[in-house]
Amino acid sequence: MTARIERVVTEGVVEIDGTEHKVENNTWIVGDDDEVIVVDAARDAEKILEQVGEREVLAVICTAGLPDHVSAAIEVASRDEAVVALHPKDKPLWRETWRETWPDIDMEDDGVFEVADVQLDVLETPGVTPGGVSLYCEALGAVFTGKALQADGPGKLGGEYPALADQLTSIGGRLFTLPGDTRVLAAHGDEVTIGDLEPHFDDWVSGSLTRDASSGDEDGPLSDGTRISGIKLNPDDN
Question: Residues 67-90: pLDDT tens digits?
């Protein structure tokens, strides 16, 4: 049977540093008529499982440990005794939502998940969170980017870029090496392609994301304290 991708959209409120933010989340379901993997099970397990139907859930993969990425993970996984996967660097974030349990699998760069005869390759894409990951499915021409990259550019956390240099390194060195027609399926918002976003990368590196428009400083440091020279386009560079 042919593998496919389905989307479930949920809405809710996330509190970040004492401030509440209204958030709309995408939960992605990858699989066929028999089995699926759920990516970023957000807040409404009943709605997600309704979309899954009678199919077996093999795994719930969290692209980040943030509450709106993991809040329905345990309930969705428990129905079929599926495993929950998270990068170990995001375990402290996970603990803010789930105090009495841990994920089953510590994801690592270049790890692999299989479902319905397709493969999901783990790409470490830190920035918004230390353990942020993306999942590339070559067979389906799609990459699940979590908060790392969205239709409007690099994702934020509470309106801020926690580690923009790391995030741009992830985008340039991992995501923008994928084919241009690859679908970008983020945790928030509409889909886009790598080819749609890649032409904007130089502007992002030049500081357009955080530059104070009133300052007229076109070449200065980024507002989070990083400088252009601190952004590595290849994560393997030291």
Answer: 989 999 999 999 999 999 999 999
